[in-house]
Amino acid sequence: MEAAAGGGCGSGPPLLLSEGEQQCYSELFARCVGAAGGGPGSGPPEAARTVPGTVTAAAGPVADLFRASQLPAETLHQITELCGAKRVGYFGPTQFYIALKLIAAAQSGLPVRIESIKCELPLPRFMMSKTDAEIRFGNPAELHGTKVQIPYLITEKNTFKRMDDEDKQETQSPTMSPLASPPSSPPHYQRVPLSHGYSKLRSSTEQMHPAPYEARQPLVQPEGPSSGAPGAKPPRHKASLIRSFSVEREPHDNSSNYPDEPWRITEEQREYYVNQFRSLQPDPSSFISGSVAKNFFTKSKLSIPELSYIWELSDADCDGALTLPEFCAAFHLIVARKNGYPLPEGLPPTLQPEYLQAAFPKPKRECTLFDSYSESMPANQQPRDLNRMEKLSIKDTADFPVPTQDVTSDDKQEQNKTRLALKSTADEALPKDMSEDPATSKDSNSLKARPRSRSYSSTSIEEAMKRGEDPPTPPPRPQKTHSRASSLDLNKVFQPSVPATKSGLLPPPPALPPRPCPSQISHHNVNSERSAHPKPPTQLPNYGDFRLQKQSEQVSEAEIHPQLNRAPSQVAESSPTKKDIPHSQPPSKPIRRKFRPENSATESQEPPSTVGGPVSAASGKPHAAVQKQSSKQKKAIQTAIRKNKEANAVLARLNSELQQQLKEVHQERIALENQLEQLRPVTVL
Amino acid sequence: MAVCVAVIAKENYPLYIRSIPTENELKFHYMVHTSLDVVDEKISAMGKALVDQRELYLGLLYPTEDYKVYPSHQSPCVESTFPNQLCRYGYVTNSKVKFVMVVDSSNTALRDNEIRSMFRKLHNSYTDVMCNPFYNPGDRIHSRAFDSMVTSMMIQVC
């Protein structure tokens, strides 16, 4: 809406202000007035206009503002003169507006003339950060958010890309033609140093998007009409915040309060990260294990050393797992890296888990807030999935294949990014107050504690697997229990008819066979197992059962076969012996009986071993004839014999080797002697 | 001061070697290599003893020997002995990863406890490196945190 500003003042020709200009100017005026002495709020432009006489802007702030426009002093003098302030002695709203318009004209390169202000001009640009109006100007709330977003985005991207740029010149250069329309603002936005944008973001509280937009463009000259009334209060609030966070123009802004702008996570980004976290681990208060995170981050296509370094930075407690804040930090670092930022030497303070915990106390809550907020946003704005990444760079979101949304969002980036970024910054400003959440710090502590336990999960799994792979080591004990049960029956069974029972027992339980069986079998040949076998006794020739079990060793099988043949005959013999033996070893007895497989395993090993050696022959006899003591002795003797045999074998081998060496040495000696002989033919003479 | 720190994998290949006088790096490599034999000997001597923290530390591996500095690389035959006493210390972890540290004791005779604490720090940093899922066991260690820790050890003791 156009309004004639200069109506009642008579200070000059009627001033036609566009809506945005109205807003800007009124804001600026209010600021100047307010700065002068807590002046009245910026009423509607009409009000200001209609009551020109009552409101005057103090010269001080006005002068500052004019100086901020960075026009030469002479021009400013001209402007002041022209606008009539000098004439009337004060800066009334009319004068102020005219002056602003003249400034805009001057900045656009037009001569400072009253006529200049008649054409549509872009809003005047004021460099100084304290001019909150600029900030507000920056919000082309009227421009559809899309336009604003685009420029913002571009700005963000450019700033990110050119961290080193000093954008002073850019802000000054009149990028816009006098007929600047909102679309022309993009160039401006490009110049906005990232830090500024971020600072604004940071400082913005949760506001309607116009407010964030305003906050975002501290240095950007207002493209066009600023947002309407809704932004009035919040912008002011924000303006104050922004003022407090005012930063130098240096893009890097290292000296500002936000030296690590790129390392701050915006609200949108935060939401995005939280969603990604949830996709990996449903419980946001839990953590992601290292392998899961590794797979996820590998998709970002960064090099492994870089990912390794990022992990090092972000896993603060070095437990091999990522809690939510750690995950957000890592994700953010990856995003930054993909956007071309060099990785920092140390974890930036804004990415520290404690900070993140405090800054985003309840991700869920904010999520919901954000969601509701986004719903209220125009349709073209895409909530979150926009990618925080977008803030960093337009193109990079696509790189991360994980969220397909990102791809789509990329398409819409231009429209939504700025808006979302603004929103997020608005949200972020709130979380700034760390005091908010002592509880979250506790949570973080507990979270940290948990990861420790979790990090061991993988190891435990491996251990479990190892245990699972250990079938061969079967505890013979269980067999004993079985046997105990069976022993009762067996005893009864055996006594009446041994052979019958034996035969009956033979078929039944191959299943049980103890793993020791194969190992034992293998040992047979080595003659080792006998003593090692937990079951003491004597070899029971239950070869038949033994054969039923898998035989890893052919030899053992071979041994077993002959034994098997003997088994039946021996079974009868053994059974009585077994009966005797049981007294001393009830558990073993049943084992022998019932668990043929086991018994056979154990016993087979014994018998085979005996078979293997000369002892085998003897084993049968002793069993038959000897009592349990004799069987024990037998066993001891057999053990000793076996050991002696082994020693013999070793010594024999050693002997042969030494003999061999001796031979070689002899040969060498002979060769050397021959050489010697050849070498002294003279002596022969 | 620690002039050389080395992390040797179970299979006796180096995961990380860093020495302060970088010009004689090869010599340090050789020294560490020879120290491995001593380490192995000590490990086997321990037999089946349970490896606890104390036994992880192997103590002085080698009697101090003169550290020969070659004046020029072109003439290796000419040696001028530089009376630097070098002490090698060893430390082995449960997973048979060995840490060897060559310490120049000319300035200060480091106490045993200091050596132990240095090894403990090394071990902690090593476990932190292990915790990184992007680190494959058996790779060379490129972790910056580990590097900085080793640097601090080498410099501070200097």
From TrEMBL, chain A:
Residues 506-517 have a biased composition (Pro residues). GO terms for molecular function: calcium ion binding. Coiled coil: none annotated. Signal peptide: none annotated. GO terms for cellular component: cytoplasm; plasma membrane. Residues 222-231, 624-640 have a biased composition (Low complexity). Keywords: Calcium, Metal-binding. The keyword Mitochondrion does not apply. One of its GO terms (biological process) is endosomal transport. Residues 302-337 form the EF-hand domain. Residues 425-435 have a biased composition (Basic and acidic residues). SMART domains: EH. SUPFAM superfamilies: EF-hand (SSF47473). Residues 158-194, 217-237, 395-640 are annotated as: Disordered. Residues 566-575, 599-608 have a biased composition (Polar residues). PANTHER family: EH DOMAIN, RALBP1-ASSOCIATED EPS DOMAIN-CONTAINING PROTEIN 2. This is RalBP1-associated Eps domain-containing protein 2 isoform X2. It comes from Vulpes vulpes (Red fox). The lineage of its organism: Eukaryota, Metazoa, Chordata, Craniata, Vertebrata.
TrEMBL record, chain B:
Its main location: cytoplasm. Pfam families: Sedlin_N. Keywords: ER-Golgi transport, Transport. It is found in: Cytoplasm, Perinuclear region. It comes from the Eukaryota. InterPro entries: Longin-like_dom_sf, Sedlin, TRAPPC2L. Belongs to the TRAPP small subunits family. Sedlin subfamily. This is Trafficking protein particle complex subunit 2-like protein. The lineage of its organism: Eukaryota, Metazoa, Chordata, Craniata, Vertebrata.
